[in-house]
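Schema walk-through. Below, the input block comes first and the output block second. Nothing else is stored per chain. Lengths vary across the set, and this one has 441 residues.
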Amino acid sequence: MALRIQTSEIPITHSVAIVGLGPKGLYCLERLLAEFKARPLHDALHIHVFNRFPHFGASPIYDPDQPEYILVNISIGEIDLWDVTDPPIVAGRGQDFVDWYQTTFGPPERLTGDEYLSRAVVGRYLIEGFQRILKHVPTGVTVSCHVGEVVDIRPQGRQYEAEFIAQNGLTQKIKADKVLLATGHSRLRPGPEEQRYEAFAAKHSSAAFIPFVYPVVESMGRVPAKARVAMLGVGLTFIDAVLELTEGRCGRFNRSSDGSLSYFASGKEPLSIIPFSRTGLPMAPKAFDLPTFLRPLTFFTPDAIVQVRREAADGKLDFEKDLWPLFELEMQLNYYRVTMGTGPERARLESCGNDAQAMLSVIESYLEIHPNQRAFDYQRAVDPVGDVEDVRVGADPRIGRHNPVHICPDLDCSSVQSTTDQRRRVVASAAAQRRRDAGSG
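--- output ---
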């Protein structure tokens, strides 16, 4: 049965609460104001904005005061606070990050958009965007900003009541008709695995358990020099933690003329950093945001497809017979580009161009000279751990001997489940289907 609301029950002023004003909350606030201006209500609208962090728009992840070596995980050309324009932006179309950076800092060479800059400078961009939005709030809308933490939300009639602890420690209760949660990284209750780590640290005076990496400077500050550090997860949070334990400890990475990196330790770093995860594999990179010019194709090209189609009897292409060999050549080329490095062997490989036979000859010679180098096998790309009987996260015998152990879970990877058996079943099923197809042909 539908609930009918009497006119007298509708509040004169509508209210909305946004809990968390990092990037996601900021985008939501901007779109809410744009919608209100395009389709104004009969009554006024008040927006309560709650943020634990005093820099509205940035969140702790984009803290403008954090070290410069903590980088964003997407290329800066993708960062644009003002790219959605329907309905129109109340503040007008602002600058994307690249243009803003150029205007603000005036670098001698213009950025291409393919760079990965510090999260601190992106935080400045977001904060300025928030301030710009506040200057263009539509008529009939008011905004209140609250610094502190919302610890509870309860239904109160037709509204919600948010219990809020302000910076001064005082508790307030604020009501709103609608609540939008944009809290980002949330605090998690420890599960059985985390409880086991906590228990281990409690029993060993030389060990410590760090449940969450952020804020990275403070949390990694608990790790003493020469400690052995085990990190659960091999994702983006892991990278932040490692940077803080290396460059953050006055170590430095130097790039040589051939493009390779060397690390020079300061002596303040941990003795070792041992990453582990449920699968034992790093996270897959985001290939879509890499510059296209870094991935030119040599064999799987439009001209090659035209040639293969021309040679086909009926002009139809067979994936395994016509297309897959080109894929495999492409994979081989890029695999050996990496394994050969930047020396003369790599130069001979590149000199082959799109001559597949010449490339395979260079590879054969390379493997004869380097018998310990694993040859390319595309099955390992499909099933990286297919030749391992069992995959387990085991205890490293180096952990816990004479040095403190600091286990820092990487929450970007903590939800990854082992899919080894699933991958094996998929590969086995595909192979069986190919055999059936071959037998019926």
